[in-house]
Amino acid sequence: MAFFAGLVDAVAGGGGLIQVPALFAAYPNVPPATLLATNKVAAVGGTFNAARKFLRHVSLPWEIVLPAIVAGFVGSLLGANAVSNFPAEPLRKALPFVLLFLLLYTWFQPSLGEAHAPKILGRFQQLKGVVLGLTIGFYDGFFGPGTGSFLLFGFVRFFGFDFLHASAATKLVNVATNLAAILMLASLGQINWPLGFAMMVANIAGSQFGSRLAIKHGSAFVRKAFLAIVSALILKSAWNAYFIN
Question: What is the C-alpha to C-alpha distance for residues 96 and 243, in angstroms, rounded to an integer?
Answer without folding.
Answer: 13
